[in-house]
Amino acid sequence: MTGRTVRRRVLRISLPGQAGPQAASRGDLLAAEEPLGIRVGGQAVTLTMRTPGDDIDLTAGFLVSEGVIRSAADIRQIKICSGARCDHDAHEGAGNIADVQLRPGLETAPALRRNFLTTSACGVCGKTSIDDLSVLPNFDLSADHTRVAPAVLAGLPDVLRAAQRVFDRTGGLHAAGLFTAGGELLAAREDVGRHNAVDKVVGWALRAGRLPLSGCVLLVSGRASFELVQKAVLAGIPVLAAVSAPSSLAAELAQEAGLTLIGFLRGSSMNVYTGAQRLERVVEQPPAAPDSEVGLGEQRVDDDPDHQDHDDDRGSAGEVEVLLVDGELLPDRELADDLHD
Prior knowledge:
This protein is an alpha/beta fold. It has two domains: 34-128, Ubiquitin-like (UB roll) (Roll), CATH 3.10.20.10; 141-340, Cytidine Deaminase, domain 2 (3-Layer(aba) Sandwich), CATH 3.40.140. It is built from seven helices and 13 strands. It has helices at residues 55-65, 150-162, 165-170, 194-207, 226-234, 248-257, 333-340; strands at 5-14, 22-31, 34-40, 43-50, 75-80, 97-102, 174-180, 185-191, 216-220, 239-242, 260-266, 269-274, 321-324. The strands form three sheets. It has a seven-stranded mixed sheet, with helices on both faces.
């Protein structure tokens, strides 16, 4: 197992102007990406591509997200291979297998075993059927009446960004941050895979005896996919926020589970797709005129899927604008007209 970064020589090309392209050789740091095999009771379960580091937390969080365990007491031992002594067949290299022993009497379901490699971009790859995608939640989110101020949410991305030490050196990692409802950062993890970053946070919470994570907010640096919503639900997290968009299936699962799902958390605005009752001090505006109504749960605010700052120029300084996608609240008529257009 290497460190979290790898140095490599690159050819740096710049275009200074009329002089034409100029090239120079220089060193560059890359985010490390290596496979980690996870075995439970000696049986191979999955092989995931991840950034080395926090591998025990990653393994524990993965087992939570698969519904295998609910508390640290369910784990007898997690051993990371040292490479010097390893009993696994056909294993070459150091530190790339996590061997899990569960408490006596706890067994894994046959569907847990993935059929192939889980890449850094996909946390559900290898599932054998559609039914395997959804795991029954361990905790009742409807009983969690946490309230979060929009102004607190708006400040979380900057706090998480400041905690991304490896990203500062490589520019190539996702991040997940766990916060209190008041905005205090409890844990932050980085990884080439967004699902791995979340598993590392959940695994840390499991080993610290913090599950369920009632009253907490999970912030992810990318989009909010189905798998990330499921991981939040299974960890008992009532609020999931993302700086980018959620998927339709993510919103559906969040609605069913009672999760507050927030997307496009950038600057002073955000979209609330489900669970708006957990946001404090949101003043309801009159509903938009009938001729400007749209399917808010189906249509994006901006036609450009890569454009994240579509609301940054709206609103005065110090104001936080909120678009409730599962209700009638719009921040203003101007935004409603943009949605219609």
